[in-house]
């Protein structure tokens, strides 16, 4: 039996969000439990996608569900974006690590992905629309790229107070953690 996991959201600017994630090598019960607990966290936070660094894990795991129907759950382990194509599209993106912040981000419409599923079985597929958008956003997380990096100077200016609040909250919580040691 593996231990039951319960994840908190890791918020900007936690350092783990900046570290490139490492490939998954074991497709075991522990991985299955991580994936289950990630879906639980994503659902509780009303998200459509989640990458492992957002729950504090430096692993190349991303999950998504664009519809809210559990049959649309998608798990991508060690994903590779083989190609991006189609017109560049602007879309309002949020991020569970940046609560309350939304930014118009330009990305190509389609993405072709190679990945493993939670059992280690390889698959390749092409996505467009919201699924493509979520995959490209979550894939950024595996590379340590964040919503704030996709902001224009005007976006940053508009979201200055919210970003400062997150930085301040992180500073206070780090201090609290240090003084508790
Ligand atoms: Zn995100």
Description of the structure:
- The chain is built from four helices and five strands.
- It is of the alpha+beta class and 181 residues long.
- It has a single domain (15-179), classed as Peptide Deformylase (Alpha-Beta Complex).
- Strands 1-2-3-4-5 form a five-stranded antiparallel sheet.
- It starts with 28 loop residues before the first helix and ends with a helix.
- The mean pLDDT is 97.
- It binds zinc ion.
- Zinc ion binds next to helix 2.
Based on CA inertia axes, which overall geometry fits?
A: globular
The chain-level structural class is alpha+beta
- Outline the low-pLDDT stretches: none
CATH architecture: Alpha-Beta Complex
Major β-sheet strand ordering: 1-2-3-4-5
CATH topology: Peptide Deformylase
Give the full name of the CATH homologous superfamily.
Peptide deformylase
N-to-C span: 31 Å
Note the run of SSEs as H and E: HEEEEEHHH
Round the mean pLDDT to the nearest integer and report it: 97
Question: Helical proportion?
Answer: 25-40%
Bound molecules: zinc ion
The Rg value, from CA coordinates, equals 16 Å
How many helices? The count is 4
* Count of structural domains: 1
Largest sheet: 5 strands, antiparallel
Give the C-level CATH assignment. Alpha Beta
List the helices and strands and how they pair.
Layout: H1 29-44, E1 49-51, E2 61-64, E3 74-93, E4 103-116, E5 122-127, H2 129-142, H3 153-158, H4 160-179
Bound molecules: zinc ion.
Features:
single chain, 181 residues, alpha+beta, Peptide Deformylase, five-stranded antiparallel sheet, 4 helices, 5 strands, binds zinc ion
């Amino acid at each position: 039996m593996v231990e039951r996991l319960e994840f908190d959201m890791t918020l900007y600017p936690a350092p783990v969000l900046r570290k490139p994630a490492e490939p998954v090598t074991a497709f075991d019960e522990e991985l299955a439990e991580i994936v289950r607990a990630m879906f639980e966290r994503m659902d509780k936070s009303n998200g459509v996608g989640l990458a492992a660094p957002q729950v504090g894990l430096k692993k190349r795991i991303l999950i998504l569900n664009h519809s809210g129907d559990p049959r649309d759950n998608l798990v991508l382990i060690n994903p590779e974006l083989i190609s991006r194509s189609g017109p560049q599209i602007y879309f309002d993106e949020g991020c569970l690590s940046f609560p309350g912040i939304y930014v118009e981000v330009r990305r190509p419409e389609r993405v072709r992905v190679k990945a493993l599923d939670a059992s280690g079985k390889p698959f390749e597929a092409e996505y467009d629309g919201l699924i493509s958008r979520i995959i490209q956003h979550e894939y950024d997380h595996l590379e340590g790229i964040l919503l704030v990096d996709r902001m224009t100077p005007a976006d940053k200016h508009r979201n200055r107070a919210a970003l400062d609040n997150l930085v301040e909250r992180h500073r206070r919580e780090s201090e609290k953690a240090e003084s508790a040691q």
